[in-house]
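Q: What does the assembly look like in three dimensions?
Context provided by user:
Components: two
Sequences:
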Amino acid sequence: MSNDAAPGAAAAAAGLTGTRTSRAAEAAGRGFFNFSLGLLILAVLWWLGGYLIARNPETQSFSGFGLVQTLQSFPELWNQGKLQKAIAASMYRLGGGLGIAIAIGIPIGIIMGRSKRFRDLSNSAFQFLRMISPLSWMPIAVFVFAAWDDSIIFLIAIASVWPVMFSTAAGLAKVDPAWFKVARNLGATPVQMLTQIILPAISFDIFTGIRLALGVAWVVLVPAELLGVTSGLGYAIKDARETLSYDHLTAMVLTIGIIGYTLDTLCALLIKRFSWHRGDA
Amino acid sequence: MSIRGVNISIKGLGYRYSSRGNPTFSNLMLESPRGEALAIIGRSGCGKSTLLHIIAGLNRPTEGTMHFDDKKIEGPSSRWVMMFQAPHLFPWMKVSQNVGVGLGFAGWPEKEKAERVAEALKLVELSDYADTNVQDLSGGQQQRVALARSLVMEPELLLLDEPFSALDAFTRASLQRDVRSIAKRLGFNLIIVTHDIDEAVLMADRALIMAGAPGKIVHEFAVNLTDPRQRQDPAVQSMRARLMDAFHTAAQVAGAPAEEVAEEAGAESSSVSQHA
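A: Here is the predicted structure of the complete assembly.
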């Protein structure tokens, strides 16, 4: 058998992989430097703002907003257990809402991607619902659900379901239809088609949708917690404002930023891990 | 790998895309004995690819029946596998995973699956690439992976829908020779749909010319040539000329302009001949 796949080509491919690895390491190092520098600049600006506030006798009472006071308040909040409780309550609501959004959004997105009839029928209704501000559902949610927690979970779910759903549908619309034909030809059952062909094929789009949904959910969570509940990061901010504990307030805002950034980074890593598209890494 | 072919019997087969539309083909009769390599040649739009999809069980005929060894065929099966014009590999899988995907669907245990995959990769000379991402392979290598993915199922019938038309002339010639040699060695049937006359002469035991609308089989040729077949062999050239004449005549009878017919049938053939 003649061969266009000479063994030397495997070595060439290995060499290519080596070059790619060193380039990736270089890019990662550059990325870390930029990341650190960006944060340093932000910290310096914050410190400078806090310093100017503290120096001015008229604004001195707001000096708790400064970087140093904020960082100093973390051990106190931790020792009192306020920080852990607030994070746990918020994460529970975020997880619940996002989980529901994913559980509903992915299957409906797949049906939308596979069935033109369903897509045509549902498009106007979904676009209409999508444009309703999530917080405007709050009075209805409070009326329908007995617990505040459930209301907030509902708000997060209704806000974050759309990116998951539309991203899944868009991902499926881009899939090469021949893959389904090949899989059927090789004997795939409908379940195998879903788990081994459809989901891996659109995993990049699903995780991109989840990443967008996470951003929306995180944005909705804090204002939702300002209304009614007595736990969570949003409530902790409101409580700190009412007790004039500005350092605690800023510490909670900083915590929201850190958690949001961490979750977003995790999503980005998942996208990278599951993406098979060349050039996404 | 132990593969055996199948006796194919097609009676009164017809297909139309919509109930009110014209038939793509109708009342088509075809017999193919165990282990035969059959080429179906025809212009674009004569229904040859549709026929292949129906034989693969991917489309349902609107009339007629198909039997493989007296068993009525009503859907796809891993016993008759199709290779498409493009490899359509799954890019999230490595080479070995792509080759073993059908065995995975059939629930094969990992150990046996790995052995069969290794054997199939050896057959297409890609053993060194088992762990390579398919996106790192050339077009020819990707089509070899698709061939291994089909062969690993130990099919009784391999259907090829212009599988090498997107490849360069050298790779195409090498794959044409290899697929025929593997089919003959393992004993499975081949049905090749093509509009490349050279491909039919180099790969088939028998060639059918399909033409007209609705499409029908208008000519049949026994390609009685010895293996291995060399493009420059006078017997191959003579068979090529006969097929080309028949193709030309059939297409003209079907109403296509002569220049267009010559261009379609000759373009690929001449490019291969020049390189070979």
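Follow-up: Chain B touches chain A through 41 residues (CB under 8 Å).
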